[in-house]
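Recap from last week: sequence in, structure out.
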Amino acid sequence: MSHAVVLVIEDDEGIQDMLAYSLEPDGFKLKKAYTAKEGWEVIEAKQLDLVLLDWMLPDRSGIDLLHRIRKHYSKLPVIMITARAEEEDRVLGLDVGADDYITKPFSVRELKSRIHAVLRRSMPDEQPIRFGDLFLDPVSQRVKVNEQGVNLPPTEFRLLHYFMSHPDRVFSRGQLLDHAWGTHVYVEERTVDVHIRRLRKNLEPYKLDALIQTVHGRGYRFSRVA
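Predicted structure tokens:
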């Protein structure tokens, strides 16, 4: 995804320089911020395609900043970059709304692969999908029910898009995990259950939560037929 504008929020100047040296020749346009405060100012001032966000920042936690990003810029892709490699940390980062999570030290080749994957997921070119009163537009990343907007977090949006693109098929938790989080992200399959519950909760006010059905022993299905 050449010419994508990427904000790097990282207080380590060496990593900033390394990322600029590695990504800019590929056509990425990098913006730099060394604190959460600086990062937020850039987010508000610039049109960005992706944020690379360090967990440990000098003024506040990257997780706190991610909360704020998701509240005000819910569709902006964010990849967490951190030395925290424990599974609980990865789950927390993804649950808060990170699109991907990479631990230090990392290879630039792997980071580039993840950046391209996240950008592809965030900028799809598929046609809008309608399922009864439910409408989803992958390009604008909008969901509507009878023209009323439904605000979905990024992971729930990707899950719903996948379901609506493949109605009446049963998907295992592993398959949903690979699609919504990517094959390089290692979290437990029970994380899928958490996001399925959240998706149902978002659809419940419109009496559409029953579209997402649990198929015991196999996974989940999107269908009007039980």
